[in-house]
Design a protein that fits this description.
This protein is globular. The protein has helices at about 5-15, 40-70, 75-100, 110-120, 125-140, 150-155, 165-180, 185-190, 195-205, 205-225, 230-250, 285-290, 310-320, 330-335, 340-345, and strands spanning about 35, 105, 185, 320-325. It contains 15 helices and four strands. It folds into two domains: about 5-250, no CATH class; about 265-345, no CATH class. The protein is mainly alpha-helical. The longest helix has about 30 residues, at about 40-70. It binds zinc ion (ZN) (2 copies). One zinc ion binds next to helix 3 and helix 5.
Length: about 350
């Protein structure tokens, strides 16, 4: 989603009757403006951006793998992939998700800028739009208005028993929604974020941050190898392959972590705690914990649910960069939402 599309969605919402929202009643029953901009030109723009965002990293990854087979790879390529993965996964999970979308912790403007830029480099959309779409996911989770539910077939036809239906749902939530979904109505979900000039600045210059996330590893590759081939390796492994990997691992939050895994808490959605993606998503795949207690800074409630994102927040707090954070739910609060009360006592 580009900054033009953001402006367009806001303008379109201000200028049009995108509907009265009656057919999009959220689970809470609270009346809201329409969650989506159902306007053809906005949808076309979103589709073009989605295609570029999906296809360019995919082709880059294919090229990188081809070159790796032909010429091999070394510490530089893997180092840049891992290093840039850590930076951008922190940006998107600690920054976009917990800081911007949920205000789970607080810090100064420098922290906000760093998290905003690092998250933007993940190429998942500008920060205000991302936060709006994520809040829409929470309000309408696993209904037709959810931007990326894997249960879309169930919402449509009331059934997803067939394996192919589940597969189609997983594809929709993993990637397909980027192309097919209507644009989120930013003003309905992120009006508060638009009041910060710094947020708007980070949001409007989204493409530059994405580009920076490609140029930086290319420059490092060139400096280390002292060659153009080193720059190409940096661009591919620290840039496009990294975007491809972060995309697919992070998008598993919406797909696998709403279909497979434990559901210790009663929530009015299908969120699960997924043990495959828990660590690689830096804790975001503890989705059932998160949907039950969305404002908590800590998403891993048990010792076997490591939360890398929370570890980073605590490290930043120890350095004085994070000034306050929302506490995790108490055992009593967790027991109140437990699906099986007897188990809750041991939470
Ligand atoms: Zn979710
Ligand atoms: Zn969330």
């Amino acid at each position: 989603m580009s900054e033009q599309a953001i402006v367009a969605t806001a303008d379109v919402f201000d200028a049009s009757d995108a509907g009265d929202g009656a057919e999009h009643a959220p689970k809470s029953g609270v009346r809201r403006p329409p969650p989506m901009i159902e306007v053809a030109s906005v949808r076309r723009a979103k589709r073009t951006i989605a295609l570029v965002t999906i296809l360019v990293p995919t082709f880059g990854t294919a090229l990188a793998l081809g070159l790796a087979v032909a010429r091999g790879i070394g510490a530089l390529e893997l180092g840049l992939l891992v290093g840039m993965y850590i930076v951008t996964m922190t940006g998107v999970e600690v920054g976009f998700h917990r800081y911007f979308a949920h205000s789970a912790f607080k810090g100064g403007e420098v922290l906000r800028a760093l998290l905003g830029v690092a998250g933007s480099m993940a190429a998942q959309g500008p920060v205000i739009y991302w936060a709006a779409t994520h809040r829409r996911h929470h309000v309408y989770s696993d209904t037709k208005e959810d931007p990326h539910s894997p249960h879309v077939r169930k919402a449509d036809s009331g059934s997803e028993q067939r394996f192919t239906s589940r597969l189609a749902g997983l594809w929709h939530s993993q990637m397909g929604n980027m192309y097919t979904d209507h644009a989120t109505n930013v003003m309905a979900f992120s009006a508060d974020l638009r009041r910060s000039r710094l947020n708007v600045f980070i949001d409007r210059h989204y493409r530059k941050w994405v580009l920076f996330g490609l140029i930086l590893p290319a420059l490092i590759g060139a400096a280390v190898e002292r060659s153009l081939y080193g720059a190409l390796m940096g661009l591919l492994w620290g840039g496009l392959v990294r975007i491809f990997v972060v995309h697919h691992i992070y998008f598993a939050n919406g797909s696998f972590s709403h279909m497979y895994g434990g559901r210790p808490f009663k929530t009015d959605d299908e969120s699960t705690n997924n043990y495959v993606f828990g660590v690689p998503t830096f804790g975001s795949a503890w989705q059932n914990n998160h949907h039950a207690f969305p404002s908590s800074a800590n998403l891993g409630f048990k010792w076997y649910q490591p939360d890398v994102g929370y570890f980073i927040i605590r490290a930043l707090a120890a350095l004085g960069v994070v000034t306050s954070m929302n506490r995790a739910p108490t055992a009593q609060e967790q027991a109140g939402k437990a699906r099986i009360p007897a188990q809750a006592v041991r939470l």
